[in-house]
């Protein structure tokens, strides 16, 4: 019997994703500190707050994308698994016919 295991190694994606998440958190923290600075005008504070909100949106989108990645990989790998099983089944049939 021959068995094929099809998989995708996501470990190479995990570390850069973690680094990106940490960077976004540090950037958001820095912007929060800037927004609270007493020397900023109300307009400048509003600009910093709007930027902070955009980073928050980016963070949420990034987290959703990373969380959805394993499911996306699973869905795209299913046709490969099915094709592999079909090939194996055909090899088995041809082997049996050849032996007969």
Tell me what you see in this structure.
The structure is a single chain. This protein has 100 residues and is mostly helical. The protein contains 2 helices and no strands. It has helices spanning 11-35, 42-99. Helix 1 (11-35) packs antiparallel against helix 2 (42-99). The longest helix has 58 residues, at 42-99. The model has no long low-confidence stretch (mean pLDDT 76).
Overall mean confidence score, pLDDT: 76
Contiguous helical run count: 2
E-strand count: 0
For the biggest sheet, the summary is: none
Strand content: under 5%
One letter per element, helices H and strands E, the order comes to HH
Task: Give me the secondary-structure category.
Answer: mainly alpha
Helical residue percent band: over 70%
Low-confidence stretches: none
Question: Which geometry do the CA atoms define?
Answer: rod-shaped
How many angstroms does the end-to-end distance come to?
18 Å
User: Over all CA atoms, what is the radius of gyration?
Assistant: 25 Å
């Amino acid at each position: 019997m021959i068995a094929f295991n099809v998989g995708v190694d996501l470990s190479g994606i995990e570390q850069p994703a973690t680094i990106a998440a940490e960077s976004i958190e540090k950037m958001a923290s820095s912007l929060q500190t800037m927004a609270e600075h007493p020397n900023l005008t109300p307009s400048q504070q509003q600009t910093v707050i709007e930027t902070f909100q955009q980073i928050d949106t980016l963070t949420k989108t990034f987290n959703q994308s990373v969380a959805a990645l394993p499911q996306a990989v699973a869905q795209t790998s299913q046709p490969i698994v099915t094709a592999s099983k079909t090939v194996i089944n055909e090899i088995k049939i041809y082997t049996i016919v050849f032996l007969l």
